[in-house]
Amino acid sequence: MFTGIVESTGLVLDTYTAGTNREFWLSCPFLAELRVDQSLSHNGVCLTVAELAADRYRVTAIDETLKKTNIGSLQAGSRVNLERSMPALGRFDGHIVQGHVDTTAFLRKRIDRDGSWALFFEYTPAPGFVTVAKGSICVNGVSLTVVESEDSGFSVEIIPYTWNHTNLSDLKEGDAVNIEFDILGKYIAKLLQKQ
């Protein structure tokens, strides 16, 4: 389980195809603390550390992950938001994030507010894809508060700290991001569908 509070950004060093999978070699500031079989959130996608080397680590994205996320578009030189799973005695600074991306959304508009940034996203609606104003949403692994909520989109406001310490500042209009909707909202939507 994650909280959506990005710990650091990492750098894709190399990527290649292996059957229907995509393999990624990355570097990160806490490489010495990683271990094989550890869960690590990459832009909100939970991937398992499969191999460690002196200056890098490897993860695998299977076909299912590649179909539902933007991970397959990463190339050497891409920055990714990283978060290690929450320790049992850790603080819960964001919201419940599983690392199970629901879909991708596209950045429709980006506005510089001279001290913060407004980002407007659009996605294809589906049952369980629910946002509410002042609710939580996970964008590329970052726990954010929804400002405006629509049936097929939402907006968020980004503070300078988050802008400077995540890859949200790299986004251009039209770019795809990974979206994980709030798990509580998904459960409520499922229960209401059954009634």
Please report the distance between the alpha carbons of the first and last residues. 30 Å
**Gross CATH architecture of the largest domain:** Beta Barrel
The helix tally amounts to 3
CATH fold-type name of the largest domain:
Elongation Factor Tu (Ef-tu), domain 3
Topology order in helix (H) and strand (E) letters: EEEEEHEEEEEEHEH
Query: Could you say which overall geometry the principal axes of the C-alpha atoms support?
Result: globular
Low-confidence stretches: none
CATH class of the largest domain: Mainly Beta
Kindly name the structural category. Answer: mainly beta
Description:
With 195 residues, this protein is mainly beta. Helix content is 12%, strand content 42%. It folds into 2 domains: 8-84, Elongation Factor Tu (Ef-tu), domain 3; 103-194, Elongation Factor Tu (Ef-tu), domain 3 (Beta Barrel), CATH 2.40.30.20. Strands 1-2-5-4-3-6 form a 6-stranded antiparallel β-barrel. The chain has a 6-stranded antiparallel β-barrel with strand order 7-8-11-10-9-12. A hairpin with a 4-residue loop joins strand 4 and strand 5. It is globular, with a radius of gyration of 16 Å. The chain starts with 7 loop residues before the first strand and ends with a helix.
